[in-house]
Amino acid sequence: MGVKKFLLKNFIRGDEAFHLARVTIHSRHDLSLHKHNFAEIFWVESGSGHHLINGRKITLEPGHLVMIRPDDQHTFTSARGGLTLMNLAFPLETLHHLRDRYFAGVDSFFWTPDVIPYQTLLAVSSIRRISQRAEEVLQNRKSCFYLDHLLLFIFRLLFDNDNLSADQKIPAWLNHAIRSYSTPAMFKQGVRGFADLAERNIDHVNRTVQRTLHKTLTDLVTELRMNFASKQLSITNTPIKTICNDCGFTNLGHFYKTFKEVYQQTPSAYRRSSQTIV
């Protein structure tokens, strides 16, 4: 099978800095095997299929985000019903700028030495956020400003995802539950509410948390509650008793004790230090 080389100039007008589009692939014949003279990010919104990449066949499903390097050779197949994705193509000069400014020495993302390019599975809610931001960008000129705006938004989500993983591969459903478990309504439901959010049996959730994050589900819920409390103490004047209740604690003394175990100071002392003007 011949390999075509796609040129960015064939997809953009003279004053445009990037190409951004949503496409539904129904068969392998919709797109030939190809490589580029540009960098590409695509993310899967719906449907399923396979990514034929550098001689490998990798399953794609909603939530997958992939970064394609210029010399990667790839195409797609789809299951019945099609595979819908959005793709962003941009000049190598932008990629070099990102490398110099943000990713010097990094061997991940576009700069992985692996045969298979960088791929991650995000929560579908994160994919929706990326698509929504992309749609907002499409309402404006396809300039370098909006290209950087979208790329930095995507990388920010990926950094957050990697920080959660702590160098471990955690399931997308657990990642989603951790990100969504951040409101007083959820905190008041405790570990049971977290398991319901994950749509998994509580014992299964606990085992997965222990295996991937090396802590119990109870410890994880406490950590998320304390993180919420610290942010409220830092940026609001909400009474500490209200923050205690919002975190799902019914006993103020227990809240103080738990907070001090995590931050080595009381909530009131933490507020004073974090709200000090320097």
From TrEMBL:
InterPro entries xrefs: AraC-bd, Homeodomain-like_sf, HTH-like, HTH_AraC, HTH_AraC-typ_CS, RmlC-like_jellyroll
PROSITE patterns in the cross-refs: HTH_ARAC_FAMILY_1, HTH_ARAC_FAMILY_2
SUPFAM superfamilies recorded: Homeodomain-like, Regulatory protein AraC
Every HTH araC/xylS-type domain range: 168-273
GO molecular function: DNA-binding transcription factor activity; sequence-specific DNA binding
UniProt KW keywords: DNA-binding, Transcription, Transcription regulation
Record-linked Gene3D superfamilies: Homeodomain-like, Jelly Rolls
PANTHER family: ARAC-FAMILY TRANSCRIPTIONAL REGULATOR (PTHR43280)
Protein name from the UniProt record: Helix-turn-helix domain-containing protein
Organism: Chitinophaga agrisoli
